[in-house]
What we know:
By secondary structure, the protein is an alpha/beta fold. The protein has helices spanning 2-7, 34-44, 65-82, 90-115, 194-214, 242-254, 280-290, 310-313, 324-331, and strands spanning 57-59, 125-128, 134-136, 157-163, 169-180, 185-188, 223-231, 262-264, 267-268, 274-275, 294-298, 317-321.
Amino acid sequence: MGGTLLDRMxxxxxxxxxxxxxxxxxxxxxxFITDYYAEVxxxxxxxSYADSFSKYFKLxxxxxxxxxxxVKKMVSGMVKLIYPNGEFTxxxxxxxxxxxxxxxxxxxxxxxxxxxxxxxxxxxxYIDNESFNEEYVPVPEQGGxxxxxxxxxxxxxxxxxxxxxxxxxxxxxxxxxxxxxxxKFERTGIGSDREAREAVDTAYNYLKANGRSISAxxxxxxxxxxxxxxxxxxxxxxxxxxxASFIGLCSAALSKPAVSSLAILGDLSIGGTxxxxxxxxxxxxxxxxxxxxxxxxxxxxxxxxxxAPAELxxxxxxxxxxxxEDAVFKALGVE
Length: 335
C-alpha cells in the first residue's frame, strides 16, 4: 500500500540541501505582494510547458507512465517559475529536465527501499534528439552507490549479491586472510546467524576436500584462515554465502585477487551442486546499483536471462561457470 501512495508523489525536495533562513536572504527591493503573485500563478495554470523539452530531448526507457507524468509536470512548473515568458534555450531546459529527473528518481529510490522485491527501474536518463547521446541522472546523496569498486582488489576480497534476512536484496563483501598456522578457520561479521555460519563453514569444508583440484599449493593444514562478512546495504545477513566464500578462500590461499568489478552470483550446496539464482532480474538490477561491471553466473541461470530487460543484461560482461572449481578459475581470471 505504501508503495502505491508514494508512487503518486511527483517529487520530494531534498530538505538537507536547503539552507536555513538568514536575515540577509530578505530583499530591500520591491517585491510582489503574495495575492498578486498567486493570481499570476493561477493565470499560468491555463498554459502548460509539459512538452517544452521534447523538441530537444526524449526520456529514457526506465521511466514508467507515472514517472513521465511527474517529470513533465515538474518541468512545466519550473519553467513557469523561472521562464514565465516561455523563452529559454536548450541548455536552460536541460538544467530543468535534469532537476525534474533527479527529484522523481528520489521518490523511486525510496520505493525501491520499501518495495525491494518489485523491479524498480531507477536508472533515469534522457536522450539528446540530435546526438542520440543518453545521459543518466544520479541522486547525489547516494554518491553513485559504488559498493563494488573499480580496479583490482586485494586477494581474498570478493563481492556477492543476494537476498538478505529481510527478503530484500543486498551486496555483501567477504574479506579473507590466510596466515601460517594449524588449520584454524575463524569467521566474523556473521553474528549469531546460524544459516550464514553454516554456509561459510560449508565453503571451508569444501576447500579442505577439494582444494587440491584447484591448486597443489592450497593447504588447509599449515595455514589459518580468517573470514569477515559485511552486509553493505544493511538488509540483514544472507545465507547464500558458500560459493562466494569458497572463491574468497581460494583467492586468499593463492594470493591472487578476483577480476575487477565482479559480482559473484549463485551458490554451492553441501554436496557440491551449483544452485541457480532466484529472481535474477531483481538481482541484476542490484548488481548495477552496486557498481558491478562483470557478473559470475551459473550456467543453469542462463535461461532466466530472458526475464530481465535486454538493456539491463547488456550493461554487464557475463561470465558463466559450470562448477565450483570453474567459478574459482574464472573469478580469479585464470585461463
